[in-house]
Write a structure and sequence with these properties.
By secondary structure, this protein is of the alpha/beta class. It has one domain: Rossmann fold (3-Layer(aba) Sandwich), CATH 3.40.50. It has helices at residues 19-29, 42-48, 65-78, 87-92, 96-111, 115-122, 131-134, 147-157, 185-202, 217-245, 268-271, and strands at 2-4, 9-12, 33-34, 57-62, 140-143.
Length: 278
């Protein structure tokens, strides 16, 4: 998470949405500072925010889950940047989610699955992310598919002129740039079941080359039911898990007053009082 008190913004880093490029750029050129931990949610921010900080401009990212799945598959196959083997990287990813991902890494390394097999094994429930918590209430969303332009648009909403085009950072080595090449006809049918409900909610479409795609009604129902339980974890347990595992890695930006604020019961629409951009 990146916060700027000078420019009054909060950037929430949803994983695999180009957040590394955006966060580095904000720190280097737009007076941003790391706060809490990299993938802290907006709800996590509200736990520590002062009344004034709760009025900051809030933005985050989104990415087509068809593309996200390919990146995740490649990371697990290639052990990208030693995420699953380097001791320091393993220690940084010692949360419940991190431990589950390492278990999945061992399965991938043992079986070397093709992409369709990977999808069937990994996504037993429809895909979802903690964008469900607050993204619809944020002031702006940066789409990965339009990352440089959307980032520049956010800067201008903040009254800032871009100092340069957004550099590419943290690109996944070992994967084809076009995610569609990973999807065989069989994988595409699986993808409709796994990713369809999320894509419908966030305005993503299946590639036109796939022809008409139907999202099973069972997937829509399961998506909503699973979200109830996922939201409980995202809201009440994920933060505690990170704090317990990484107590010395929590960041606090300078130039702020350390007033404790109890905002667990505060609704996001109450926390953010600025008018959303049209």
């Amino acid at each position: 998470m990146i916060v700027s008190h000078k420019h009054r913004y909060v950037y929430v880093e949803l994983p695999r949405t180009g957040s590394s490029a955006v966060s580095v750029e904000l720190r280097e050129n737009y007076d941003g500072h790391s706060f809490l931990f990299k993938h802290a949610t907006y709800r996590d921010f509200l736990r520590h925010a002062t009344p004034d900080e709760r009025t900051y401009f809030v933005f985050s990212g989104l990415r087509n889950p068809l593309d996200v799945a390919v990146t995740r598959y490649t990371h697990l196959l290639e052990d990208t940047r030693g995420h699953f083997s380097e001791p320091e990287q393993v220690q940084m990813r010692s949360s419940v989610a991190g431990r589950l991902e390492r278990r999945l890494f061992r399965w991938v390394q043992k079986t070397n699955p093709d992409f369709e097999t990977f999808l069937k094994h990994v996504y037993l429930l429809p895909f979802d992310t903690w964008s469900a918590l607050d993204h619809k209430r944020m002031h702006a969303i940066i789409r990965f598919e339009n990352l440089p332009d959307d980032f520049a648009s956010v800067l201008r909403q903040l009254g800032l002129e871009p100092v340069r085009p957004l550099p590419v950072r943290n690109a996944t080595p070992g994967r084809e740039r076009d995610y569609e090449s990973y999807y065989t006809p069989g994988a595409a049918r699986v993808a409709a079941r796994i990713f369809g409900p999320y894509m419908e909610e966030w305005g993503y479409a299946f590639p036109s080359s796939w022809g008409p795609m139907q999202v099973p009604w069972r997937s829509r129902i399961l998506y909503r039911v699973a979200r109830v339980f996922r939201t409980v974890y995202w809201r009440f347990f994920r933060y505690r898990d990170y704090v317990r595992m990484l107590p010395t890695r929590l960041y606090h930006p300078p130039e702020r007053s350390r007033q404790d604020a109890s905002v667990d019961s505060l609704r996001p629409e109450e926390a953010v009082t600025q008018t959303k951009p049209s």
